[in-house]
Structures are given as structure tokens and as C-alpha cells.
Design a protein that fits this description.
Helix 2 packs across helix 3. With 157 residues, the chain is α+β, with helices and mostly antiparallel strands. The protein has a four-stranded antiparallel sheet.
Amino acid sequence: MHDLTDLDGFDIRLLASLQTDSRLTNQELAERVGLSASQCSRRRTRLEAEGFIRSYASQADREKLGYGLTVFVSVMLNTHNRDNARKFAELVRRLPNVLEAHALTGEMDYQIKLVAKNLRELSDIINNDLMPHDSVQTVKSSIVLDTIKETTALPLE
């Protein structure tokens, strides 16, 4: 198992640069981190192999693609056992509108971040998918009015 202690300053700068723009070429990375392109290539390959870089992804513009609503949904299960949690997890994994789902401590059991094209679609997800599910007791939703900060970049430097 590898962790942060396995990385040096060049690795950290390389990761930070790739978090900002994952399409950087090895030459562009070299200019940013102060290594040769071939050293950047070897380090990038090692960071991928060791799992520090899990994937490369593009971020589509939700609004341009018609998803005008971002919604946080809190869910409480009706019974707290493994089978119920497994059934709920299976449901969430099948819902394409769900971007994130997290098990929580506290009053609610799960926090889900989802997108919907409009209120009708949101209503369908809540009333036809979440609420009738055997494992679910309570669903509370909050529609995002404005996003102040949204990033996937970890604080590396």
C-alpha cells in the first residue's frame, strides 16, 4: 500500500498540475515541475500503477447538457442492517442521475448528490425510485441555488 510518504516534491507538483489539467503532455508537465519529459512520463506511469492517479476524466457542463438542477438528497433507512444497506446501495448505483452517494454519521444515513433536468424529473426520482424502495424510511431534498465552489482537486501543495 502506497501513501503520501512515498511521494517527493516532484511527484506532488506533477499530481497538482494534472489535477488542474489532466490533458497536459509530458513536455508541458516537464516545464511546470522542472524535470525532463521522459522523467515526467516515468513518474506519471508509476503514479498510475501505484494508484495515486485513479483515472482521467472530462467534466461536462451540466447546464449545457440540460441538467438545470443539482440536488442534495438525505436518506434515512427504515432498518439498520447489512442487507438493507446493500439493497439501498444497489438502488443508488443503478440511478444514472446520482453523481455521488455517501454513508454518513448523524441523523441521516446517506447523502446523495444528483442532477435533474427539471422539477418533474427530480420528482420522478424521489417519488418513483427512492421513496417506494423497501429500505427507505425518509427522504429530504435540497435544491442548490448557487454553487460557490466545486472542485475535484485535492490540496497537495
